[in-house]
Amino acid sequence: xxxxxxxxxxxxxxxxxxxxxxxxxxxxxxxxxxxxxxxxxxxxxxxxxxxxxxxxxxxxxxxxxxxxxxxxxxxxxxxxxxxxxxxxxxxxxxxxxxxxxxxxxxxxxxxxxxxxxxxxxxxxxxxxxxxxxx
Length: 134
Description:
The protein has 134 residues and is mainly beta. The protein has a single domain, classed as Sandwich (Jelly Rolls), CATH 2.60.120. Helix content is 15%, strand content 46%. A 6-stranded antiparallel sheet has the order 1-2-3-10-5-8. Strand 2 (32-38) and strand 3 form a beta hairpin.
């Protein structure tokens, strides 16, 4: 079926496909470094969380989905602790109080935010302007 569609040129592919490891690293807060991939109405954050770190409870208007890619962590949502492991997904509605605590190993998560987190994207632009690399 896909053969009926022409393969994108290398220029077209380069304009549309992003290799996460090529995106500059942005420090979101102590112990949390991320590759930020902006979309039109959402922001992706491929974040590496250092071991034994506490990320304080906070809230924001953005809906957030946490997908654990490596390791595990405890996510606090509305005063309850949820252990989230590789391959598991935890959605958090906008406005809900939440935080996290990493355990004995580093944890890599994909966070999806909607609407877009413009302050994360500003950090990415600053990293790109400074020539920071992965």
